[in-house]
């Protein structure tokens, strides 16, 4: 009797870092307010389309952005601003990506930031902007003329305001995606323990294979991170989470992930490579992984969250290549939608990607059941597999038997609805 492959996934348990879920979403961090309003980017007056997340005072920031060469105007404006390490607010709209819009698009992005800065009473350069929606359509400044000040007037610090902001950035998302955690930092010499929070939201459902972060994400913490520490905490969290999500293998023109650190928890600044930093960085990774899983589970038309675990590789790069080949395979994804335990498609996807291995060293588990050992099929109970497909999450584990490198990627199945959504996207 073959046993399932033994594999300890690289997920992070919040309890490992003394954190637990709490209320508040992006507003869980002290010193943060948020709002979601209708500004007019969308025709439906009942649909929120403008989100603002603002700190009470200028705070530390860090960010990552898309590596797509067709990066949108908001990315071009926000990237150098975020590099300064300080910000006051992030403003995000849905309904228009402001991508491939040239100098006019950049002018609109800058003017929209100026309008929000004026309403907040801060320098223009302290406002970061992001957009999501249809590519190649000029974005009018009109929605911002009243929308920016209305969004500031609507700012609040409770969970309802956080939820409104999360809803305002949705496009083909079916649900808002939020996270909030609370924990206590270890007390340094002569210092009292500090309670800190990490919160955030993201949007993403299609055009998701981030090569930096997710479609749009805002994270907040009241931990007093330095700018260097904020960058050092955000980048590994992004690499281990949002960079491990794929819905359809397409990297957006607008991907942006922002972190605002208010320092409102008090105490001395937290530098990198300290016990306090390790705790906050761990909590940020938990938050990012939580949001990443929600993106995959809410992929356009998805019915299943799919977790692809690859181990036994020579290098991390090999593991990632194999995992993406499997996770992006239309044949694997459609088989899962059809509840077909067709492990041959997994094997074929692994074999086509250019990573060298011996097929007779390979083991595969599907839905926790051994289906391939040493390159040869293992008899399986088809009725049992059909029952297992009723679970909301489908797991695939493949061991190439070549080394110690491993990775995990989250994706989803492909349904008829994916084609319908994307066939009708502009109509």
Question: What tags apply to this protein structure?
Answer:
427 residues; alpha+beta; six-stranded mixed β-sheet; 11 helices; 26% strand; 31% helix; nine-stranded mixed β-sheet; Ubiquitin-like (UB roll); L-amino peptidase D-ALA esterase/amidase
Descriptive report:
With 427 residues, the chain is α+β, with helices and mostly antiparallel strands. It folds into two domains: 14-297, L-amino peptidase D-ALA esterase/amidase; 305-423, ArgJ beta chain, C-terminal domain (Ubiquitin-like (UB roll)), CATH 3.10.20. The protein is 31% helix and 26% strand. The chain has helices at residues 73-82, 102-120, 142-153, 159-168, 227-239, 275-297, 316-327, 330-337, 343-351, 382-388, 416-423; strands at residues 19-21, 32-37, 50-65, 86-96, 127-134, 177-185, 194-203, 216-221, 256-261, 305-313, 363-366, 369-373, 376-377, 393-399, 405-412. The strands form two sheets. Strands 1, 2, 3, 4, 5, 6, 7, 8 and 9 form a nine-stranded mixed beta sheet that branches. A six-stranded mixed beta sheet has the order 13-12-11-14-10-15. A hairpin with a 2-residue loop joins strand 11 (363-366) and strand 12 (369-373). The protein is globular. The chain starts with 18 loop residues before the first strand and ends with a helix. Mean pLDDT is 90; it is low at 206-214.
């Amino acid at each position: 009797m073959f046993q399932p492959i033994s594999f300890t996934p690289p997920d992070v348990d919040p309890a490992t870092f003394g954190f637990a879920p709490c209320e508040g979403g992006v507003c869980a961090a002290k010193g943060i307010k948020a709002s979601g309003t209708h500004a007019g980017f969308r025709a439906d007056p009942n649909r929120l389309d403008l989100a603002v997340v603002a700190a009470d005072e200028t705070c530390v920031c860090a960010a990552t952005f898309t590596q797509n060469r067709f990066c949108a105007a908001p990315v071009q404006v926000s990237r150098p601003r975020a590099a300064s390490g300080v910000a006051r607010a992030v403003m995000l709209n849905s309904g228009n990506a402001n991508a491939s819009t040239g100098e006019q698009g950049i002018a609109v992005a800058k003017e929209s930031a100026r309008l929000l800065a004026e309403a907040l009473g801060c320098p223009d350069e302290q406002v970061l902007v992001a957009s999501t929606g249809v590519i190649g359509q000029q974005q009018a400044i009109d929605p911002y003329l009243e929308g920016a000040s209305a969004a500031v007037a609507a700012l609040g610090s409770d969970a309802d305001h956080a939820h409104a902001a999360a809803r305002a950035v949705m496009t083909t998302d079916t649900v808002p995606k939020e996270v909030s955690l609370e924990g206590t930092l270890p007390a340094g010499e002569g210092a009292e323990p500090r309670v800190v929070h990490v919160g955030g939201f993201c949007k993403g459902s299609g055009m998701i294979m981030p090569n930096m972060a997710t479609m749009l994400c805002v994270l907040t913490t009241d931990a007093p991170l330095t700018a260097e520490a904020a960058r050092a905490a955000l980048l590994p969290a992004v690499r281990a989470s949002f960079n491990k999500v794929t819905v359809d293998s397409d990297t957006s023109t607008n991907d942006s992930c922002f972190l605002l650190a208010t320092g409102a928890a008090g105490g001395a600044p937290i530098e990198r490579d300290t016990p306090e930093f390790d705790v906050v960085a761990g909590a940020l990774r938990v938050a990012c992984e939580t949001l990443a899983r929600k993106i995959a589970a809410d992929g356009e038309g998805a019915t299943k969250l799919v977790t692809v675990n690859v181990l036994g590789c020579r290098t991390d790069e090999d593991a990632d290549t194999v995992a993406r080949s499997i996770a992006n395979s239309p044949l694997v994804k459609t088989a899962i939608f059809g509840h077909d335990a067709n492990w041959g498609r997994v094997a074929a996807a692994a074999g086509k990607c250019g990573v060298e291995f011996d097929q007779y060293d390979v083991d595969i588990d599907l839905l926790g059941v051994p289906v391939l050992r040493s390159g040869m099929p293992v008899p399986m109970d088809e009725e049992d597999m059909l029952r297992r497909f009723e679970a909301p999450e489908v797991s695939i584990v493949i061991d190439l038997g070549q080394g110690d490198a491993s990775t995990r990627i989250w994706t989803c199945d492909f349904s008829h609805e994916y084609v319908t959504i994307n066939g009708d996207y502009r109509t």
